[in-house]
Amino acid sequence: MRMKRRIFLALGVLLLAAAPGVASGVGSAQAGAPVQKGEMAGYLLVPNEKVPETYNAGYSMYVAAWPLLDQYPGQRFQTGLFGTWMFARKDSPPPIKLYSDIEGGLGWWRDTEFATETPKFIMGGVAPNFSEWANGPGAGKGRDWDKPKGKYGIAQLSPWLLWPPDGLNLKQGTCGELFGYGYLPLPLTPAKATTAGKDIPTGDQSWTLFLNTGNFKGPVAFFTPYFWSAGAVAEPRFSGLLLDSRPSDPNRALQMETQHIPSIQANDAKGETYARVAPTFFPCATNGESRLVHHITSYNRKALWDAVQSWFGGGAEANGAIRPEGAILHQFTGKGGATWRIYPDGTPKEAKVPVAWSSFATPMAADPNTFGYRWDLKVAKQTDSKNGPLVKLPEYFHLVKSGAKSQWVPVPAEEVPAETGLVKARFERPERRPKAYVTPDDPASCWKKPGPKAGPFQAHPGDGSVVTYYWYRFADQPALLNADLTAQEREALQVRVEKLHRLWKKDREYLPPPTIGKLAELDPALIMTPPPGLEAGYVPIVTRQAAKE
Fold this sequence. Notes:
Layout (H helix, E strand, L loop, with lengths): L14 E4 L17 E10 L13 E7 L12 E7 L1 E2 L13 E2 L2 E4 L11 E3 L2 E2 L6 E4 L2 E2 L13 E3 L11 E2 L7 E10 L19 E7 L4 E7 L1 H10 L19 E14 L5 E5 L3 E3 L5 E11 L5 H8 L14 E3 L7 E2 L2 E4 L8 E2 L6 E7 L2 E6 L5 E4 L4 E4 L3 E7 L2 E6 L14 E4 L8 E2 L15 E6 L5 E9 L4 H4 L5 H17 L34 E10 L2
Antiparallel strand pairs: 1-31, 2-17, 2-22, 2-23, 3-14, 3-20, 4-7, 4-17, 5-6, 6-9, 7-8, 8-13, 9-10, 10-11, 12-16, 14-15, 15-16, 17-18, 18-29, 19-28, 20-21, 20-26, 23-24, 25-26, 27-28, 29-30, 32-35, 33-34, 34-35
């Protein structure tokens, strides 16, 4: 999951309490032995085989979901679990610098307000060069609704799932189960020759998030084509290069991106340097193996697009199931890499020292389509957590120099000199009242005109927040009122979505199911039943998410 620092601007504070001798994690155990705050960060790299570029209509995969840390340490903590980046395919180098994709995934971010040890999911669409981003319905860059910057970029499609702006919640206690997700384009709106009154075209691709979980299956929400083409209105050289019209590149990077796991380090009386990281875990079977990514699949238009397009044109109903003749699996090589490093705050890039990852983890392909690690259980220790079986990664490290190179080598706690103060220190969650997500309340705003049909209602997910939502007619939801669609275009879209609601229920198969493991579940508080009379053509839209009073 790509989560660049410039995306997530909210800064948290790590409070590190300690036994006597280490004050607030920044004092010293003895004179001359300062304890420095820092982080462990980097990428876990997962090579997989390329497939033909004709499989250019999206992807899906299954990734393990688990509590990476045993205690959420505050808003400096930022990491994804395993994820990917889906870019538009480029036939030639673009005429201008261009970064735009769909990334996101499972994880924790600096702007997560209602975080727990259980990860959340965001959609992570990036408009050209991070001018905007969209993380879910009503969630984007910043909090200023006068400058929405992507907060209208995603439309709610499912009537059976509520999407909080802080991220989609998994069931609390999820520990190693597989979370299935992917994006496929749907032909919900026709292509247009003009956009926002300018001679800039908008394509017909509505990139739609599909989930496969234990208690919800099917499409959830989609990026409006205008989310992408608006970037071309601002910079015409982007026209025709974005995901509203371009096919996807099927050969994507697969990595786990970590920006901050809390760490501390100190020197002993001999000047040797030791470090400690917040207790970090991976799911682990009794044989010492983790299966973390499964069935990366790329699609062409035979998988779903062709059948839906025919249906909307008056042909036979499309049941929404992915057709196997339009799918291809990526195989794993059994190899992998790691760039995790431990370093104090403010360390320049060239001075960051790598962790000896291979001393306790070996990448593997459990089968041609399943990636994971085999752990050295003499160094990484198996444990039964409150949520399930995990392996605890090394917590203590010694800085070992070999010639011009250095690395952090795992050591047991009993080998860490007492004068460093590291063993007695503890990482604690700071006390902080989360900020509320609040949508515009102006009676003249798109949230009020034409406005909802039912509500307000409240949901209480396991993150401790209270989510207030209303039921809107699908075409009248705020995202679609800001999608550069005429009233006639929205009504045509309404007709198509009512067809989907009547046929594509939440308990039928869409994405190809996994062949191993157990499916993760979403927070049951977010599973919806439409009110009587609003079963087709209406969706739940969140207007507020706040802490319990």
